[in-house]
């Protein structure tokens, strides 16, 4: 008896592949030398995408292979967490956005060639809608020799004089990303360990100048989030200068920075010369003068829907100015003044707003020393209100009875709103 042992132990006459599959397998094997894809039928393309190597050069696959199984495999092999819902359920968009983010986050000025970034742009620019940059590396400093350590610096000379700590220059990139709608930036270094320096966690003047010019050229940008980067008044004013009259910017987030009254006045000017809908300035150093400038802009503004001044230094002068502005403004829906230094006069001014304004739906006054008299004023105002569905007055020195009544009215308004929405959807 002769016994034949096949190279493929699973091979039998019953499962001999058809000729078309053999051809497709040949295409997969020789794809780098002879890329055939557009000529195939949809079913054949799916077969090829399942078998192609994810190590193929992007220059070959970027503009040839459509969104589908191939890009899903590329994402899942590279990253553990892949939430496709954040990318409009597009695997290809996820891959190219995260790929470009990784290149920028690992870019070392003075060492990494700019062409490393620029050569990717033609391949990915059609798929980039959002960039979320979680770190920006500074240049690498050469360690000092023992002799240099022993030499005393001359008087008046700083240790960092002559050393540039500028980060990646966005001016070379953003004007090329014509579909970019969201930009999230933070100037910091993750996992710096024992090499920690404060300069790793702030943008320089040249960083700010180049970014400001880049933002002006990014015409389709809708959301800009620049937080935890030690932005002061000077940098804020420069950024705002280039954002004035921006055609598409709708949301601006400068939270967790060091912006004070001068920066707030610049932002007030931006409110008057843009169509901004959301302004988030939580955890900054804005005081009464800055809040009054923003309030003056609110009295004329007709686009802003949400204003967040949580954890600043706003006092009663600024708080009362915002209250007076909201008697005129009929657009703002969300107002957050929690964690400031507001007292009774501001609560009284806002009580008038609550009694008259039917646009405001959410107001937060938590962690302010408002007092019991303010609680009674707010309670009386809420009894006349039908639009506010959330009114946070925790830790405000108000009596429990007033707080309970305010919460009950807000809950009733929210329930009525849900019923109204449900009835309108049924009628449709």
Describe this structure in words.
- By secondary structure, the protein is α/β, with parallel strands linked by helices.
- The protein has 16 helices and nine strands.
- It has a nine-stranded parallel β-sheet.
- Helix 11 links the parallel strand 4 and strand 5 (278-280).
- Helix 1 (19-29) crosses helix 2.
- The chain is elongated and about 105 Å long.
- It starts with 18 loop residues before the first helix and ends with a helix.
How would you briefly describe this protein structure?
With 428 residues, the chain is α/β, with parallel strands linked by helices. Helix content is 40%, strand content 7%. The protein has a nine-stranded parallel β-sheet with strand order 1-2-3-4-5-6-7-8-9.
List key phrases describing it.
alpha/beta, single chain, 16 helices, 7% strand, elongated, 428 residues, 40% helix, 9-stranded parallel beta sheet, 9 strands
